[in-house]
Amino acid sequence: MSARRPVPESLALLTEGYAWLPDLMRAEGDRARTLRVLGHPALAVRGPDAVRFFYDEEHVRRHGALPGPVLSTLFGHGAVHTLDGDAHRQRKSLFLPLLEADAVTGSAKHIAEAWDEAVPRWRTQPQVVLFEAVGRVIARGVCRWAGVPLTEDEEEPLARDLLAMVDGFATAGPRHWRARRARTRQEQRFADLVGSVRSGAVDTPTGSVLDRVCRHRDAAGAELPPRIAAVELLNVIRPTTALSWFVTFAAHALHRWPEHRERLRSGEAAFAESFAHEIRRFYPFAPFLGGQAVTDLTWQGHRVPAGGLVLLDVYGQNHDERLFEDPYAFRPERFRDHPPGRDDLIPQGGADPRTGHRCPGEALAVGVLETLAQRLAGLDYEVPPQDMTIPLNRIPTRPRSGMIVKLVAVGRTAVPSSSA
Questions:
Q1: How far apart are CA 65 and CA 223, in angstroms?
Q2: At 360, which helix (H) or strand (E)?
Q3: Nearest-5° angle of CA 35, CA 56, CA 64?
Q4: Which of 75, 71, 43, 70 is nearest to 300 (CA)?
Q5: Lowest CB count within 10 Å: 29, 123, 291, 310, which one?
Q6: Are 42 and 313 in contact (CB under 8 A)?
Protein backbone atom coordinates (compact mmCIF):
# COMPACT_ATOMS: atom_id res chain seq x y z
CA MET A 1 0.00 0.00 0.00
CA SER A 2 1.23 3.50 -0.80
CA ALA A 3 2.57 5.72 1.97
CA ARG A 4 0.26 8.42 3.28
CA ARG A 5 1.02 12.01 2.36
CA PRO A 6 2.07 14.30 5.21
CA VAL A 7 -0.83 16.63 4.37
CA PRO A 8 -4.22 14.96 4.91
CA GLU A 9 -5.44 14.00 1.45
CA SER A 10 -8.98 15.34 1.96
CA LEU A 11 -7.52 18.72 2.89
CA ALA A 12 -5.32 18.58 -0.19
CA LEU A 13 -8.46 18.06 -2.27
CA LEU A 14 -9.89 21.31 -0.94
CA THR A 15 -6.72 23.29 -1.57
CA GLU A 16 -5.60 21.72 -4.88
CA GLY A 17 -8.92 21.02 -6.57
CA TYR A 18 -8.46 19.62 -10.07
CA ALA A 19 -4.74 19.11 -9.51
CA TRP A 20 -5.27 16.90 -6.45
CA LEU A 21 -5.55 13.45 -8.02
CA PRO A 22 -3.18 14.15 -10.95
CA ASP A 23 -0.52 15.29 -8.46
CA LEU A 24 -1.01 12.15 -6.36
CA MET A 25 -0.78 9.91 -9.40
CA ARG A 26 2.28 11.73 -10.71
CA ALA A 27 4.03 11.27 -7.37
CA GLU A 28 3.23 7.56 -7.53
CA GLY A 29 4.38 7.30 -11.14
CA ASP A 30 1.47 5.00 -11.97
CA ARG A 31 -2.15 4.96 -13.07
CA ALA A 32 -3.44 3.74 -9.70
CA ARG A 33 -2.84 4.42 -6.04
CA THR A 34 -4.50 3.94 -2.68
CA LEU A 35 -5.37 6.79 -0.34
CA ARG A 36 -7.91 7.81 2.27
CA VAL A 37 -10.73 10.27 1.68
CA LEU A 38 -12.57 11.64 4.71
CA GLY A 39 -11.21 8.72 6.68
CA HIS A 40 -12.37 6.08 4.18
CA PRO A 41 -10.05 3.81 2.17
CA ALA A 42 -10.05 4.69 -1.52
CA LEU A 43 -8.51 3.55 -4.78
CA ALA A 44 -7.81 6.10 -7.51
CA VAL A 45 -7.49 4.81 -11.08
CA ARG A 46 -6.79 6.21 -14.54
CA GLY A 47 -6.51 4.92 -18.10
CA PRO A 48 -8.79 3.17 -20.64
CA ASP A 49 -8.51 -0.21 -18.88
CA ALA A 50 -9.30 1.52 -15.58
CA VAL A 51 -12.38 3.10 -17.14
CA ARG A 52 -13.71 -0.33 -18.07
CA PHE A 53 -12.83 -1.62 -14.58
CA PHE A 54 -14.63 1.36 -12.97
CA TYR A 55 -17.83 0.91 -15.00
CA ASP A 56 -18.08 -2.86 -14.45
CA GLU A 57 -21.00 -3.30 -12.03
CA GLU A 58 -19.33 -6.40 -10.61
CA HIS A 59 -16.56 -4.11 -9.36
CA VAL A 60 -18.09 -0.71 -8.62
CA ARG A 61 -21.61 0.44 -7.80
CA ARG A 62 -23.15 3.90 -7.79
CA HIS A 63 -26.06 3.21 -5.40
CA GLY A 64 -25.14 4.80 -2.10
CA ALA A 65 -21.86 6.16 -3.43
CA LEU A 66 -22.90 9.69 -4.37
CA PRO A 67 -22.77 12.04 -1.36
CA GLY A 68 -26.04 13.57 -0.20
CA PRO A 69 -24.90 17.14 -0.94
CA VAL A 70 -24.22 16.19 -4.58
CA LEU A 71 -27.67 14.63 -4.92
CA SER A 72 -29.28 17.67 -3.29
CA THR A 73 -27.71 20.00 -5.82
CA LEU A 74 -26.53 18.37 -9.04
CA PHE A 75 -28.41 15.11 -9.75
CA GLY A 76 -31.40 15.02 -7.41
CA HIS A 77 -32.37 12.25 -4.99
CA GLY A 78 -33.64 9.15 -6.77
CA ALA A 79 -31.98 10.08 -10.08
CA VAL A 80 -30.80 7.54 -12.64
CA HIS A 81 -27.20 8.21 -11.50
CA THR A 82 -27.98 6.55 -8.14
CA LEU A 83 -29.28 3.28 -9.59
CA ASP A 84 -27.60 0.02 -10.59
CA GLY A 85 -28.61 -3.21 -12.32
CA ASP A 86 -32.06 -3.64 -13.86
CA ALA A 87 -33.41 -0.50 -12.20
CA HIS A 88 -30.63 1.54 -13.80
CA ARG A 89 -31.12 -0.03 -17.23
CA GLN A 90 -34.87 0.56 -17.18
CA ARG A 91 -34.50 4.19 -16.11
CA LYS A 92 -31.62 4.68 -18.55
CA SER A 93 -33.94 3.71 -21.41
CA LEU A 94 -35.70 7.01 -20.82
CA PHE A 95 -32.55 8.84 -21.94
CA LEU A 96 -31.43 6.64 -24.84
CA PRO A 97 -33.24 8.72 -27.50
CA LEU A 98 -30.72 11.47 -26.65
CA LEU A 99 -28.14 9.33 -28.45
CA GLU A 100 -29.97 9.53 -31.76
CA ALA A 101 -28.87 11.88 -34.52
CA ASP A 102 -32.30 13.52 -34.67
CA ALA A 103 -32.02 14.52 -31.01
CA VAL A 104 -28.57 16.02 -31.54
CA THR A 105 -29.67 17.93 -34.63
CA GLY A 106 -32.95 19.07 -33.10
CA SER A 107 -31.47 20.32 -29.86
CA ALA A 108 -28.65 22.16 -31.64
CA LYS A 109 -31.16 23.77 -34.02
CA HIS A 110 -33.39 25.11 -31.24
CA ILE A 111 -30.43 26.36 -29.19
CA ALA A 112 -28.88 28.02 -32.26
CA GLU A 113 -32.19 29.78 -32.92
CA ALA A 114 -32.25 31.02 -29.32
CA TRP A 115 -28.67 32.31 -29.77
CA ASP A 116 -29.63 34.18 -32.95
CA GLU A 117 -32.58 35.76 -31.14
CA ALA A 118 -30.35 36.92 -28.29
CA VAL A 119 -27.56 38.53 -30.34
CA PRO A 120 -29.50 41.72 -31.28
CA ARG A 121 -30.23 42.29 -27.58
CA TRP A 122 -26.57 41.76 -26.72
CA ARG A 123 -25.63 44.47 -29.23
CA THR A 124 -27.64 47.04 -27.25
CA GLN A 125 -25.84 46.28 -23.99
CA PRO A 126 -22.61 47.99 -22.87
CA GLN A 127 -21.13 44.55 -22.26
CA VAL A 128 -22.21 40.93 -21.93
CA VAL A 129 -21.07 38.37 -19.36
CA LEU A 130 -20.99 35.46 -21.77
CA PHE A 131 -21.32 32.73 -19.13
CA GLU A 132 -24.65 34.11 -17.89
CA ALA A 133 -25.96 35.11 -21.30
CA VAL A 134 -25.25 31.70 -22.82
CA GLY A 135 -26.96 30.01 -19.87
CA ARG A 136 -30.15 31.87 -20.69
CA VAL A 137 -29.83 31.08 -24.41
CA ILE A 138 -29.38 27.36 -23.81
CA ALA A 139 -32.18 27.19 -21.24
CA ARG A 140 -34.56 28.78 -23.75
CA GLY A 141 -33.50 26.52 -26.60
CA VAL A 142 -33.40 23.24 -24.70
CA CYS A 143 -36.84 23.85 -23.18
CA ARG A 144 -38.30 24.44 -26.64
CA TRP A 145 -36.70 21.25 -27.88
CA ALA A 146 -37.81 19.24 -24.82
CA GLY A 147 -41.41 20.45 -25.05
CA VAL A 148 -41.21 22.33 -21.74
CA PRO A 149 -43.35 25.49 -21.79
CA LEU A 150 -41.33 28.56 -20.81
CA THR A 151 -42.40 32.20 -20.91
CA GLU A 152 -39.89 34.99 -21.47
CA ASP A 153 -40.27 36.08 -17.84
CA GLU A 154 -39.38 32.56 -16.69
CA GLU A 155 -36.19 32.22 -18.76
CA GLU A 156 -33.75 34.15 -16.61
CA PRO A 157 -34.88 32.67 -13.24
CA LEU A 158 -34.75 29.15 -14.68
CA ALA A 159 -31.32 29.64 -16.24
CA ARG A 160 -29.99 31.16 -13.02
CA ASP A 161 -31.24 28.19 -10.99
CA LEU A 162 -29.90 25.62 -13.46
CA LEU A 163 -26.44 27.20 -13.43
CA ALA A 164 -26.55 27.46 -9.63
CA MET A 165 -27.23 23.71 -9.29
CA VAL A 166 -24.01 22.95 -11.16
CA ASP A 167 -21.99 25.74 -9.61
CA GLY A 168 -22.68 24.64 -6.04
CA PHE A 169 -22.45 20.84 -6.15
CA ALA A 170 -18.80 20.53 -5.04
CA THR A 171 -18.48 23.22 -2.42
CA ALA A 172 -19.69 24.28 1.00
CA GLY A 173 -21.02 27.68 1.98
CA PRO A 174 -23.17 30.13 0.00
CA ARG A 175 -22.76 28.48 -3.42
CA HIS A 176 -23.92 25.14 -2.04
CA TRP A 177 -26.99 26.53 -0.28
CA ARG A 178 -27.89 28.60 -3.32
CA ALA A 179 -27.76 25.35 -5.35
CA ARG A 180 -30.00 23.53 -2.88
CA ARG A 181 -32.62 26.29 -2.96
CA ALA A 182 -32.46 26.34 -6.76
CA ARG A 183 -33.07 22.59 -6.99
CA THR A 184 -35.97 22.72 -4.52
CA ARG A 185 -37.66 25.47 -6.54
CA GLN A 186 -37.23 23.80 -9.90
CA GLU A 187 -38.09 20.27 -8.72
CA GLN A 188 -41.39 21.63 -7.41
CA ARG A 189 -42.03 23.58 -10.61
CA PHE A 190 -41.28 20.60 -12.83
CA ALA A 191 -43.26 18.19 -10.62
CA ASP A 192 -46.27 20.49 -10.98
CA LEU A 193 -45.70 20.53 -14.74
CA VAL A 194 -45.64 16.71 -14.85
CA GLY A 195 -48.93 16.63 -12.94
CA SER A 196 -50.48 19.13 -15.34
CA VAL A 197 -49.40 17.09 -18.38
CA ARG A 198 -50.74 13.86 -16.90
CA SER A 199 -54.08 15.52 -16.04
CA GLY A 200 -54.41 16.97 -19.54
CA ALA A 201 -54.19 20.57 -18.38
CA VAL A 202 -50.95 21.12 -20.35
CA ASP A 203 -50.24 19.77 -23.82
CA THR A 204 -46.80 18.64 -24.91
CA PRO A 205 -45.67 17.29 -28.29
CA THR A 206 -45.85 13.52 -28.59
CA GLY A 207 -42.37 12.03 -28.28
CA SER A 208 -40.88 15.12 -26.67
CA VAL A 209 -38.64 14.74 -23.62
CA LEU A 210 -41.43 15.99 -21.37
CA ASP A 211 -43.90 13.54 -22.94
CA ARG A 212 -41.52 10.60 -22.49
CA VAL A 213 -40.79 11.47 -18.87
CA CYS A 214 -44.50 11.71 -18.06
CA ARG A 215 -45.22 8.33 -19.69
CA HIS A 216 -42.14 6.44 -18.48
CA ARG A 217 -42.67 3.33 -16.35
CA ASP A 218 -40.18 1.90 -13.86
CA ALA A 219 -39.01 -1.71 -13.69
CA ALA A 220 -42.22 -2.61 -11.79
CA GLY A 221 -44.43 -1.02 -14.46
CA ALA A 222 -45.41 2.01 -12.36
CA GLU A 223 -45.32 5.66 -13.42
CA LEU A 224 -42.50 7.66 -11.92
CA PRO A 225 -43.69 9.72 -8.95
CA PRO A 226 -44.00 13.39 -9.97
CA ARG A 227 -40.92 14.42 -8.00
CA ILE A 228 -38.75 11.67 -9.52
CA ALA A 229 -40.10 12.55 -12.97
CA ALA A 230 -39.14 16.16 -12.26
CA VAL A 231 -35.65 15.06 -11.23
CA GLU A 232 -35.14 13.20 -14.49
CA LEU A 233 -36.57 16.02 -16.58
CA LEU A 234 -34.10 18.35 -14.90
CA ASN A 235 -31.37 15.81 -15.68
CA VAL A 236 -31.90 16.64 -19.35
CA ILE A 237 -32.43 20.39 -19.03
CA ARG A 238 -29.78 21.09 -16.37
CA PRO A 239 -26.71 19.39 -17.96
CA THR A 240 -27.55 20.93 -21.34
CA THR A 241 -27.58 24.38 -19.75
CA ALA A 242 -24.27 23.47 -18.10
CA LEU A 243 -22.72 23.71 -21.57
CA SER A 244 -22.40 27.40 -20.64
CA TRP A 245 -19.12 26.34 -19.03
CA PHE A 246 -17.78 24.87 -22.25
CA VAL A 247 -18.97 27.78 -24.41
CA THR A 248 -17.28 30.16 -21.98
CA PHE A 249 -14.11 28.08 -22.24
CA ALA A 250 -14.45 28.26 -26.04
CA ALA A 251 -14.45 32.06 -25.81
CA HIS A 252 -11.39 31.86 -23.57
CA ALA A 253 -9.65 29.61 -26.10
CA LEU A 254 -10.50 31.88 -29.05
CA HIS A 255 -9.05 34.83 -27.13
CA ARG A 256 -5.82 32.98 -26.33
CA TRP A 257 -5.49 31.26 -29.69
CA PRO A 258 -7.33 33.50 -32.20
CA GLU A 259 -5.89 31.57 -35.15
CA HIS A 260 -8.74 29.07 -34.70
CA ARG A 261 -11.44 31.68 -35.28
CA GLU A 262 -11.33 31.73 -39.08
CA ARG A 263 -11.51 27.95 -39.37
CA LEU A 264 -14.59 27.91 -37.17
CA ARG A 265 -16.12 30.79 -39.15
CA SER A 266 -15.58 28.91 -42.40
CA GLY A 267 -18.15 26.31 -41.41
CA GLU A 268 -15.67 23.45 -41.64
CA ALA A 269 -17.64 20.76 -39.80
CA ALA A 270 -14.71 18.43 -39.12
CA PHE A 271 -12.69 21.21 -37.50
CA ALA A 272 -15.68 22.34 -35.41
CA GLU A 273 -16.01 18.81 -34.05
CA SER A 274 -12.28 18.60 -33.29
CA PHE A 275 -12.42 22.00 -31.59
CA ALA A 276 -15.35 20.86 -29.41
CA HIS A 277 -13.49 17.71 -28.35
CA GLU A 278 -10.36 19.69 -27.50
CA ILE A 279 -12.35 22.18 -25.40
CA ARG A 280 -13.82 19.28 -23.44
CA ARG A 281 -10.40 17.65 -23.03
CA PHE A 282 -8.25 20.68 -22.29
CA TYR A 283 -10.44 22.68 -19.92
CA PRO A 284 -11.42 21.41 -16.45
CA PHE A 285 -15.00 20.46 -15.64
CA ALA A 286 -15.41 17.21 -13.65
CA PRO A 287 -12.26 16.47 -11.58
CA PHE A 288 -13.12 12.82 -10.90
CA LEU A 289 -16.02 10.37 -10.60
CA GLY A 290 -16.66 8.08 -7.67
CA GLY A 291 -18.29 4.78 -6.74
CA GLN A 292 -18.13 2.08 -4.07
CA ALA A 293 -16.26 -1.19 -4.30
CA VAL A 294 -18.75 -4.07 -4.51
CA THR A 295 -16.19 -6.52 -3.08
CA ASP A 296 -12.53 -6.49 -2.10
CA LEU A 297 -10.79 -5.23 -5.23
CA THR A 298 -7.25 -5.22 -6.55
CA TRP A 299 -6.17 -3.08 -9.50
CA GLN A 300 -2.56 -3.02 -10.68
CA GLY A 301 -1.41 -4.27 -7.30
CA HIS A 302 -3.40 -1.70 -5.32
CA ARG A 303 -6.18 -2.93 -3.04
CA VAL A 304 -9.39 -1.42 -1.68
CA PRO A 305 -11.82 -3.25 0.62
CA ALA A 306 -15.50 -3.80 -0.12
CA GLY A 307 -17.39 -0.57 0.55
CA GLY A 308 -14.30 1.56 -0.07
CA LEU A 309 -14.29 4.38 -2.59
CA VAL A 310 -13.11 3.98 -6.17
CA LEU A 311 -12.22 7.27 -7.91
CA LEU A 312 -11.80 7.66 -11.65
CA ASP A 313 -9.32 10.48 -12.32
CA VAL A 314 -11.18 12.32 -15.11
CA TYR A 315 -9.06 15.48 -15.29
CA GLY A 316 -5.83 13.52 -15.01
CA GLN A 317 -6.82 11.07 -17.74
CA ASN A 318 -7.80 13.88 -20.11
CA HIS A 319 -4.28 15.26 -19.59
CA ASP A 320 -2.40 11.94 -19.64
CA GLU A 321 0.59 12.20 -21.99
CA ARG A 322 0.32 8.47 -22.70
CA LEU A 323 -3.05 9.16 -24.32
CA PHE A 324 -2.65 12.72 -25.61
CA GLU A 325 0.67 14.00 -26.86
CA ASP A 326 1.69 17.33 -25.31
CA PRO A 327 -1.50 17.29 -23.20
CA TYR A 328 -1.19 20.81 -21.80
CA ALA A 329 -1.12 22.35 -25.28
CA PHE A 330 -4.44 23.36 -26.86
CA ARG A 331 -4.41 21.55 -30.20
CA PRO A 332 -7.79 20.82 -31.83
CA GLU A 333 -6.05 19.20 -34.78
CA ARG A 334 -5.10 16.23 -32.57
CA PHE A 335 -8.62 14.90 -33.15
CA ARG A 336 -8.78 15.47 -36.92
CA ASP A 337 -7.19 12.21 -37.98
CA HIS A 338 -7.58 10.36 -34.69
CA PRO A 339 -11.10 10.63 -33.22
CA PRO A 340 -11.11 10.14 -29.44
CA GLY A 341 -11.38 6.57 -28.23
CA ARG A 342 -14.47 5.79 -26.21
CA ASP A 343 -12.54 5.18 -23.00
CA ASP A 344 -9.69 7.63 -23.69
CA LEU A 345 -11.46 11.01 -23.61
CA ILE A 346 -13.85 10.97 -20.64
CA PRO A 347 -15.02 14.50 -19.72
CA GLN A 348 -18.54 13.09 -19.33
CA GLY A 349 -17.61 9.63 -18.11
CA GLY A 350 -16.63 6.46 -19.92
CA ALA A 351 -17.90 3.08 -21.11
CA ASP A 352 -21.05 2.48 -23.18
CA PRO A 353 -23.68 5.24 -22.78
CA ARG A 354 -26.46 2.82 -23.73
CA THR A 355 -25.86 0.42 -20.85
CA GLY A 356 -23.51 2.11 -18.37
CA HIS A 357 -23.31 5.35 -16.41
CA ARG A 358 -21.71 7.41 -19.18
CA CYS A 359 -23.77 10.51 -19.94
CA PRO A 360 -26.24 9.62 -22.74
CA GLY A 361 -26.36 13.29 -23.72
CA GLU A 362 -22.66 13.44 -24.63
CA ALA A 363 -23.29 13.46 -28.39
CA LEU A 364 -25.90 16.16 -27.86
CA ALA A 365 -23.37 18.18 -25.84
CA VAL A 366 -20.74 17.90 -28.56
CA GLY A 367 -23.25 18.88 -31.23
CA VAL A 368 -24.45 21.95 -29.35
CA LEU A 369 -20.88 22.99 -28.52
CA GLU A 370 -19.87 22.70 -32.19
CA THR A 371 -22.82 24.86 -33.22
CA LEU A 372 -22.31 27.57 -30.60
CA ALA A 373 -18.53 27.67 -31.05
CA GLN A 374 -19.06 28.44 -34.73
CA ARG A 375 -21.58 31.14 -33.91
CA LEU A 376 -19.27 32.59 -31.28
CA ALA A 377 -16.41 32.71 -33.79
CA GLY A 378 -18.72 34.48 -36.24
CA LEU A 379 -19.47 37.33 -33.83
CA ASP A 380 -17.51 40.56 -33.97
CA TYR A 381 -16.75 41.53 -30.39
CA GLU A 382 -14.11 43.15 -28.24
CA VAL A 383 -12.71 41.61 -25.07
CA PRO A 384 -12.22 44.38 -22.50
CA PRO A 385 -9.61 44.07 -19.73
CA GLN A 386 -10.79 41.56 -17.12
CA ASP A 387 -9.61 38.72 -14.91
CA MET A 388 -9.66 35.60 -17.10
CA THR A 389 -7.74 33.36 -14.72
CA ILE A 390 -9.20 29.87 -14.24
CA PRO A 391 -8.61 28.79 -10.62
CA LEU A 392 -8.02 25.05 -10.30
CA ASN A 393 -9.07 25.05 -6.64
CA ARG A 394 -12.62 26.09 -7.56
CA ILE A 395 -14.92 23.23 -8.64
CA PRO A 396 -16.49 23.63 -11.11
CA THR A 397 -14.16 26.32 -12.33
CA ARG A 398 -14.43 28.91 -15.11
CA PRO A 399 -12.78 32.22 -16.01
CA ARG A 400 -13.24 34.46 -13.00
CA SER A 401 -14.89 37.18 -15.07
CA GLY A 402 -17.30 34.84 -16.82
CA MET A 403 -15.77 36.14 -20.11
CA ILE A 404 -16.97 39.69 -20.64
CA VAL A 405 -17.42 40.74 -24.27
CA LYS A 406 -18.66 43.86 -26.00
CA LEU A 407 -20.30 43.32 -29.35
CA VAL A 408 -19.33 45.86 -31.98
CA ALA A 409 -21.75 47.48 -34.39
CA VAL A 410 -22.47 45.53 -37.56
CA GLY A 411 -19.91 46.47 -40.20
CA ARG A 412 -17.19 47.42 -37.74
CA THR A 413 -14.15 45.29 -37.01
CA ALA A 414 -13.46 44.20 -33.45
CA VAL A 415 -10.35 45.67 -31.86
CA PRO A 416 -8.42 43.04 -29.89
CA SER A 417 -7.91 43.80 -26.22
CA SER A 418 -5.80 42.07 -23.63
CA SER A 419 -6.86 40.64 -20.31
CA ALA A 420 -6.06 42.40 -17.06
A1: 26
A2: none
A3: 65
A4: 43
A5: 29
A6: no
User: Which pTM value belongs to this model?
Assistant: 0.91
Nearest to 288 by CA among 8, 12, 17: 17
Q: Which residue has the higher pLDDT, 70 or 325?
A: 325
| Contact yes or no for 380/407 (Cβ under 8 A) | yes
Dist. CA 276–CA 261, nearest whole Å: 13
- For residue 187, give the nearest of 226, 239, 156, 138 by alpha carbon: 226
Measured distance CA(39)–CA(46) in Å, rounded: 22
Q: What is the pLDDT of residues 150-190, one digit of tens each?
A: 999 999 999 999 999 999 887 878 999 999 999 999 999 99
> What is d(CA 384, CA 367) in angstroms, rounded to the nearest whole number?
29
Nearest one of 153, 183, 143, 156 to 167, comparing CA atoms: 183
Q: Is the pLDDT of residue 87 over 90?
A: no
Q: Which amino acid is at 159?
A: A
For 198-253, the pLDDT digits (tens) are 999 999 999 999 999 999 998 888 999 999 999 999 999 999 999 999 999 999 99
Instruction: Look at residue 115 and tell me whether its pLDDT is greater than 90.
Output: yes
* Phi, psi (rounded to 5 degrees) for 60: -130, 135
Are 191 and 226 in contact by the 8 Å Cβ rule? The answer is yes
pLDDT tens, position by position, 374-385:
999 999 999 999
All domains in the chain, ordered by first residue: 9-407 (1.10.630.10)
- pLDDT level of residue 410 (50, 70, 90 thresholds): low
Buried b (16+ CB within 10 A) or exposed e, 228-242: bbbbbbbbbbbbbbb
**Closest to 49 (Cα-Cα) out of 29, 62, 32:** 32
